[in-house]
């Protein structure tokens, strides 16, 4: 199977994504093997902070330069019905006129962390299809959703002026993962105060990068050029220091891990798992029962590819 | 098992989207994945979104009276792009005569005001052209 032949146009890319979400692991594997090295930009932040609008404005400039842009917008799945309202496209209408842009909306499927199990697969599909830059818009997040750092080359964390004080800023979690912080809606609230608070954490990272912060008002197109400049600066930093291949390896490993977790999750949803209650309650060690569950129920999941 | 994916859009200049939003939310409650694309969509916008999102259903909300024009154009584009397995449904203020004409043209169903959510979701589940 040559993945590039399969992903020949808009429709076939869209169909491939659906197939992977349905559990076609052969296609997921080929997408991994077909990776060409797109620059992946993760965009995360609280609901309503302006992630979709920012992506639309940034992507518009790149699209005008002729770059091939892929965008994945993730929204939450209802814990009650299993359905979802996926609304990230609303803010991206101006991208519809570009042949070189592809947008797909994804539901989390109830998975925590800010993305769905198949998000890395879908990034790989777009990468294999030859997109230069891929944006991942996570669900609106809070403090603890940091998964996107495992598949993004550059992480943008979108914040707004009105939330919390310095103590929120120094806590662990999402504010640790931003390569670039965007203070959007900076025409509202005490924006300069927020910038001052944020400087507390603008310290050199393990890889040597010093995070930056930039003010924007996405709806008025303010700050977009500066964001683009910082993305380029971060990319050059990563490439200059030979870190790109680490990031790619991390994405591949994360893809495999998500398949493992997905399979585990599917097993746990199986009603037949109830039969193991008695084994534990009659005194068999939980850990040994789990070994048994994996052996007995772990096979036959999904549509398996060839060996 | 994947969820049934439904695109909800408002074509043209009609900006009254309360109904479309209520429908989007209600279909979510019925377990569908609803891609809501908002108001002022061109037929090209809608069909392109339907292709990229690989939806099972396109649902249009039209209150402006321009339903004959919009449905005709979208049916044309769906045919051009080979979306034969996608249901096309609509809701809004559509007179009975026009409704019959639209069904003849190839629209799968038109739901007038007062239709229950259950009626719409049952119709979708029963008439799906793709395996889920």
Task: Give the SSE map.
The complex is a heterodimer of chains A (307) and B (132).
Chain A: H1 3-6, H2 10-21, H3 25-33, E1 39-45, H4 51-64, E2 69-75, E3 84-86, E4 101-107, H5 119-128, E5 133-137, E6 154-159, H6 166-170, E7 180-183, H7 191-198, E8 212-215, H8 224-240, H9 244-269, H10 276-281, H11 286-297
Helix pairs in contact in A: 2-5, 3-5
Chain B: E1 5-11, H1 18-29, E2 33-41, H2 43-53, E3 57-62, H3 67-80, E4 87-92, H4 96-105, E5 109-111, H5 117-127
Helix pairs in contact in B: 2-3
Describe this structure in words.
- The complex is a heterodimer of chains A (307) and B (132).
- With 307 residues, chain A is an alpha/beta fold.
- Chain A has two domains: 3-252, Rossmann fold (3-Layer(aba) Sandwich), CATH 3.40.50; 276-307, no CATH class.
- Helix content of chain A is 40%, strand content 14%.
- Chain A has helices at residues 3-6, 10-21, 25-33, 51-64, 119-128, 166-170, 191-198, 224-240, 244-269, 276-281, 286-297; strands at 39-45, 69-75, 84-86, 101-107, 133-137, 154-159, 180-183, 212-215.
- A seven-stranded parallel β-sheet of chain A has the order 4-2-5-1-6-7-8, sandwiched between helices.
- In chain A, helix 2 (10-21) packs antiparallel against helix 5 (119-128) and helix 3 (25-33) packs across helix 5 (119-128).
- The radius of gyration of chain A is 21 Å and the shape is globular.
- The mean pLDDT of chain A is 91.
- By secondary structure, chain B is α/β, with parallel strands linked by helices.
- In chain B, strands 2-1-3-4-5 form a five-stranded parallel β-sheet, sandwiched between helices.
- The mean pLDDT of chain B is 94.
- The interface between A and B is medium-sized, with 26 and 29 residues.
Molecular shape of chain B: globular
| Portion in beta strands of chain B | 15-25%
Supply the CATH architecture of the domain at 10-91 in chain B: 3-Layer(aba) Sandwich
For the biggest β-sheet of chain B, the strand order reads 2-1-3-4-5
Instruction: State the end-to-end CA separation of chain B.
Output: 7 Å
Helix segment tally of chain A: 11
Proportion of residues in helical segments of chain A: 40-55%
Q: Order of SSEs of chain A, N→C?
A: HHHEHEEEHEEHEHEHHHH
Low-confidence stretches of chain B: none
* Amount of beta strand of chain A: 5-15%
Q: Residue-averaged pLDDT of chain A, rounded?
A: 91
- The arrangement of helices and strands of chain B along the chain is EHEHEHEHEH
């Amino acid at each position: 199977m040559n993945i590039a032949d399969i992903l020949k146009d808009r429709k076939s890319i869209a169909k491939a994504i659906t197939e992977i979400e349905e559990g076609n692991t052969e296609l997921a594997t080929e997408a991994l093997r077909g990776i060409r090295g797109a620059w992946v930009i993760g965009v995360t932040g609280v609901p309503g902070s302006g992630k979709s609008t920012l992506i639309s404005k940034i992507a518009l400039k790149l699209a005008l330069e002729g770059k091939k842009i892929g965008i994945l917008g993730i929204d939450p799945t209802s814990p009650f019905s299993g359905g979802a309202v996926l609304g990230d496209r609303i803010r991206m209408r101006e991208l519809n006129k570009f042949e070189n842009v592809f947008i797909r909306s994804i539901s989390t499927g109830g998975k925590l962390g800010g993305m769905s199990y198949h998000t890395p697969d879908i990034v790989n599909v777009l990468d294999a299809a030859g997109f230069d830059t891929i944006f991942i818009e996570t669900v609106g997040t809070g403090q603890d959703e940091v998964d996107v750092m495992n598949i993004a080359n550059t992480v943008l964390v979108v914040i707004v002026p009105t939330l919390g004080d310095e103590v929120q800023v120094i806590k662990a979690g999402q504010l640790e993962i931003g390569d670039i912080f965007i203070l959007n809606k900076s025409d509202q609230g005490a924006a300069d105060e927020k910038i001052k608070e944020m400087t507390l954490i603008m310290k050199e990272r393990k890889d040597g990068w010093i995070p930056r912060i930039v003010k924007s008002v996405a709806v008025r197109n303010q700050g977009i050029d500066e964001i683009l400049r910082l993305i380029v600066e971060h990319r050059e930093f990563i490439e200059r220091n030979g870190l790109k291949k680490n990031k790619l390896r991390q994405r591949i490993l994360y893809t495999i891990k998500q398949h493992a977790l997905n399979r585990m999750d599917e097993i746990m949803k199986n009603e037949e798992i109830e039969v193991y209650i008695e084994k534990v309650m009659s005194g068999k060690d939980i850990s040994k029962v789990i070994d048994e569950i994996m052996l007995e129920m772990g096979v036959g999941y999904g549509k398996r590819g060839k060996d | 098992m994947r969820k049934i994916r439904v695109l909800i859009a408002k074509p043209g200049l009609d900006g009254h989207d309360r109904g479309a939003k209520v429908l989007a939310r209600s279909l979510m409650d019925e377990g569908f994945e609803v891609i809501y694309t908002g108001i002022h969509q061109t037929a090209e916008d809608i069909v392109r979104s339907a292709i990229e999102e690989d939806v099972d259903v396109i649902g249009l909300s039209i209150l402006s009276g321009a339903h004959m024009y919009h449905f005709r154009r979208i049916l044309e584009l769906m045919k051009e792009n080979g979306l034969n397995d996608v249901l096309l449904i609509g809701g809004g203020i559509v007179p009975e005569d026009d409704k019959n004409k639209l069904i003849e043209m190839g629209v799968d169903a038109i739901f007038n005001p007062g239709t229950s959510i259950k009626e719409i979701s049952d119709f979708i589940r029963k008439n799906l052209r793709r395996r889920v």
